[in-house]
Amino acid sequence: MPIPASQPVAPAVLTDLLDGRWAHVRREARVRMAALPSPATYDLTTEQHREQVFAELHELAKSGYPRVGFPVSHGGEGDLGGSLTSFEMLGFGDLSLMVKAGVQWGLFGGAVEALGTERHHDRYLRDIIELRLPGCFAMTETGHGSDVQHLRTTATYDPATGEFVVHTPHEAARKEYIGNAARDGRIAVVFAQLIAGGSEHGVHALLVPLRDEAGLTLPGITIEDCGRKAGLNGVDNGRIWFDQVRVPRDALLNRYGDVAEDGTYSSPIEGDSRRFFTMLGTLIRGRISVAGAAGSATKSALTIAIRYALERRQFTRPDSDDEVVLLDYLAHQRKLLPALATTYALHFAQEELVTTLHELTTDDHRQRELESRAAGLKAATTWHATHTIQTCREACGGAGYLAENRLPQLKADTDVFTTFEGDNTVLSQLVAKGLLTGYQQHLHELGSVGMARFIADQFVGTVIERTAARSLIERLVGAVTARDEDADLLDRGWHLRLFEDREKHVLDTLARRLRRAGEPGADAFEVFNAAQDHVLRAARVHIERVVLEAFVAAVDRCADPDAAALLGRVCDLHVLSTVEADLDWFLGHGRVSTAKAKAVTGAVNDLCRHLRPHAAVLVGAFAIPDPLVAAPIASGAERDRQDAQRGHDQDRLPRKEDSGRATAS
Amino acid sequence: MPIPASQPVAPAVLTDLLDGRWAHVRREARVRMAALPSPATYDLTTEQHREQVFAELHELAKSGYPRVGFPVSHGGEGDLGGSLTSFEMLGFGDLSLMVKAGVQWGLFGGAVEALGTERHHDRYLRDIIELRLPGCFAMTETGHGSDVQHLRTTATYDPATGEFVVHTPHEAARKEYIGNAARDGRIAVVFAQLIAGGSEHGVHALLVPLRDEAGLTLPGITIEDCGRKAGLNGVDNGRIWFDQVRVPRDALLNRYGDVAEDGTYSSPIEGDSRRFFTMLGTLIRGRISVAGAAGSATKSALTIAIRYALERRQFTRPDSDDEVVLLDYLAHQRKLLPALATTYALHFAQEELVTTLHELTTDDHRQRELESRAAGLKAATTWHATHTIQTCREACGGAGYLAENRLPQLKADTDVFTTFEGDNTVLSQLVAKGLLTGYQQHLHELGSVGMARFIADQFVGTVIERTAARSLIERLVGAVTARDEDADLLDRGWHLRLFEDREKHVLDTLARRLRRAGEPGADAFEVFNAAQDHVLRAARVHIERVVLEAFVAAVDRCADPDAAALLGRVCDLHVLSTVEADLDWFLGHGRVSTAKAKAVTGAVNDLCRHLRPHAAVLVGAFAIPDPLVAAPIASGAERDRQDAQRGHDQDRLPRKEDSGRATAS
């Protein structure tokens, strides 16, 4: 497969494209963070680390950082996209600080803003923004982590005193893993089953004070430290029990449900379940922030591993004393370069999601679609981070295991991202369910011809909604009329058709399969459970299509022709390595022939070789300031040592006998 | 696909089979370790952890543990298999202690024993066994980690004084990552290029004192602490520089090469390279020990994750208030049960390898085959550990991220296993190279008919050498004459044929491809490098066949029919999930039809469901004592909380309205 030559590109050209709409936020964050990088934390005790992070959080508050996302009316700047972008940038520093900031301003502050009303905003927002009131987001319980709709903490209204009584009825109902709880939080947004007028009204949120100004726990509150974790030890996670704690009626964050003085419940939203998911929907930003930080950590890891791979040498070439640079080995390229390509793809998908959310006006349908995409991208990005950072660690061998080279901390800190702010497996099911909702409603009404038409319509409709480059994608998809088996492996239209067709097929067969759940006598749980691997695949292939389209749109936006050409090859590698990872499906469903399957593997190898000379530029474009990259193995020390060796080797004695070549390469 | 019903089996029956030949060593270790489990280390500073581990190492020495593997003539018991098994058992405790013991008695003590001669044995072995002389194994250098044949430390013989001068010529030649160096080691086996009589003789090992009895570093020695690592922080890794350090002539471990008083070099082995690999070959035990410990850590992680999955509930069934046990979800079964099945498979392969090594008499050919198998199994087992422990962490959600539940430590400690004692990617290439050696020698001599015959012969020969159950395997392989497309998915003969055929094909095509390297004008490095993914696949499929045959042999050894039947299903799940992971190859090479490919996925689901009721027994059979499992989530706390919730829920108020079902499942 002939690959068009790629010209050298200056990293700054790519950086401009990657930086996108909130480039100013990124540039400012780089300057601020490079000037005062977080000191290394790996030798700190838990308490020392927490202290350092809390001090840094205060510095952040002073810098005005948290204002960006809050409303102008309460001292903020009302720039949601800028706020999400600045969270992403925090991901280049100590991830404990990112999470601590996320708890204070994203979850806690965000809940007060989104679920509260004017009285809460007036009373709390400024103190929250300026960190005079450190708070917690107390949703998760020990017994209910993923299934938070069924949590068991109660908030019972007592009309005699006009108070809510907040209570932990048993051990499984204690609040679990609450950030800011073990040390710094003074107040919490507590999610509890609301009981008023003698009945339950589902989960609502209330503000419950935890500690006084001196930091002493208030009466009725018990807090336990969750203790040491795999990572993120600068965040003070704790467990909270409430023993009949009384708070005034106006502690209820009452935007979506209120209780009158006499105990009468009222809500603008019908149905506990719908109301609950509306409340959760306002918290979409948490997932987007986690995905952004995971992306940043992945970029840090790749920057370290690829810079090392460009300097580190191991084993000589046959019949030569030249030692081979690691990144010249195909196996090493295959470890790092497809992961780098997919990191680009996910970056552009994330950027597009942030932009769409930023521009969102009140529109129930698009909100749901965005929630689904945020959930899916969060799953994809955090799994990619876990996999890639692991690979980077291994690619750096023992050096990658040393704390000073940062990969261990990046791995440990991001590891929980796959299961917090929504377990990825659970989120993937939500994505699939969202895709099926339209399906299931319609399939009952339509005959098979109508169904086929509906399926086609559904996807055209979905494409229209989802990508910023609709006309481009449609043009590319339709550009080639030849049989796809003959399509060139680098044909973008073929790539797009392949991903779209796969999604259609997986979703179509899944919908048919799940219809059985509605048949008389069927055990709905068993039908769904037996198809769970199919459900997870549906979510994955859907997100893979969305990500690809975002990447294609970004390449199209690139005004510099050389940069666009190079990015095109990165996109090719992303597509074909994704296809290669799912070849069993494509082969098993007759979407590629065995000849083409082999060609895909060959093309991945060719593209790795092709992009090898551009690897430094491609990680350089992430523009992570050197003080944040920090790892000694990524800072030229290895090159210096190689030079010293070469200097020395010139004076070596001749070997008495030729040892023969016995390298492992 | 109908799966024969499996009867309940007592875990002890399986434990007997798993415990195998060195059952007495395992039982003794369980009792000893359960009586005094390592205290939790996650809150310790590096220094505290090192102190604790060194104290535990002294306890081990007192218990007589290290004696098992050393020769009877020097206070040992001469039981190599027992020694390797007891290393494996240490893997159920603090892995820092396992590695520290491995450095002292496996690497350092093993090198003195294997590379030294009587004078070294007499002088050092007892002190080593009894830990009066803590030592290091100083092979790796900063510039040469994998390619140790080219390390740069020199040992130059000075006939004027009868001494060797050990020297670090430049920064890349400093000794790197040396266990026991930063704190406790008093002496080191140092690997250096031997220079005598004015020429180099390749890498040899010498004993070089590092510290005096008071622990002070000796003149000419500089030691630096490697500092904090991702895990294994109870091991004091350090860097060592030698500045013209003089040691007497008899410091040379001279079994494979000696220097006379006048500087004349002599060796029983011709050729630097062959000599070097003979010296390395004696260190095969290190790789086997790492594989064993990785297996133990994997068993610990699976025990924790599966016990939790059997008690943890999340989300209600449709139209019910019953919350579903995690392991009832197909997605959760798929995360844990195939990994459990492969853990069984690798256990039996490891056991077989230990037995074969234990019984080995001097036989050059079998030694090389065993080295290759040890390298391949080490790669397979440690990658499986990394993958499985990661999965277990995720399967336990936030609870899996808490240090008290041990998964973070298991993950961090074992993470380096994939790259130490040989980087897995490098080891895999050694395996492939070993398989090809015979090939390449023969292919030049044979025409195509002869080659085909040779290929067939080669594999029969290989099978004969490798498995303890040769006649069984041959009977099974030959048992079915029907077309394989029609073979039952649980047909063991089909499994064996499928794996053997894949190995033949991959190796055959690889051999043809690599022959090009010998053609005139070919760049041998480029030819080899372009095929590197093919090379890695060859190693993997070879090891997968070896592992499968070991599992099949173990099922055959099982005298209890119910246990054998259950193990048969575990073996089926291992085989079919391995096939599923490589379906792109089997489909792409016409080895399974698309219909059969779908059936494989269905069968994996069916086998997961089938084994679900036996999951507790299958992890129980590992017989890890409760004080070593240790994690609170694996000890019934979750069940107690579920009970408390159920008790409480009986008194709950009725909901005012049906909330509708909105679970993610």
UniProtKB/TrEMBL annotation, chains A, B:
<dbReference type="InterPro" id="IPR055060">
    <property type="entry name" value="ACOX_C_alpha1"/>
</dbReference>
<dbReference type="InterPro" id="IPR046373">
    <property type="entry name" value="Acyl-CoA_Oxase/DH_mid-dom_sf"/>
</dbReference>
<dbReference type="Pfam" id="PF22924">
    <property type="entry name" value="ACOX_C_alpha1"/>
</dbReference>
<feature type="region of interest" description="Disordered">
    <location>
        <begin position="634"/>
        <end position="665"/>
    </location>
</feature>
<dbReference type="InterPro" id="IPR009100">
    <property type="entry name" value="AcylCoA_DH/oxidase_NM_dom_sf"/>
</dbReference>
<dbReference type="InterPro" id="IPR012258">
    <property type="entry name" value="Acyl-CoA_oxidase"/>
</dbReference>
<feature type="compositionally biased region" description="Basic and acidic residues">
    <location>
        <begin position="637"/>
        <end position="665"/>
    </location>
</feature>
<dbReference type="InterPro" id="IPR036250">
    <property type="entry name" value="AcylCo_DH-like_C"/>
</dbReference>
<feature type="domain" description="Acyl-CoA oxidase/dehydrogenase middle">
    <location>
        <begin position="136"/>
        <end position="245"/>
    </location>
</feature>
<comment type="similarity">
    <text>Belongs to the acyl-CoA oxidase family.</text>
</comment>
<keyword id="KW-0560">Oxidoreductase</keyword>
<keyword id="KW-0274">FAD</keyword>
<feature type="domain" description="Acyl-CoA oxidase C-alpha1">
    <location>
        <begin position="281"/>
        <end position="436"/>
    </location>
</feature>
<dbReference type="Pfam" id="PF01756">
    <property type="entry name" value="ACOX"/>
</dbReference>
<dbReference type="InterPro" id="IPR006091">
    <property type="entry name" value="Acyl-CoA_Oxase/DH_mid-dom"/>
</dbReference>
<dbReference type="InterPro" id="IPR002655">
    <property type="entry name" value="Acyl-CoA_oxidase_C"/>
</dbReference>
<feature type="domain" description="Acyl-CoA oxidase C-terminal">
    <location>
        <begin position="497"/>
        <end position="634"/>
    </location>
</feature>
<dbReference type="Pfam" id="PF02770">
    <property type="entry name" value="Acyl-CoA_dh_M"/>
</dbReference>
<keyword id="KW-0285">Flavoprotein</keyword>
<dbReference type="InterPro" id="IPR037069">
    <property type="entry name" value="AcylCoA_DH/ox_N_sf"/>
</dbReference>
<protein>
    <submittedName>
        <fullName>Acyl-coenzyme A oxidase</fullName>
    </submittedName>
</protein>
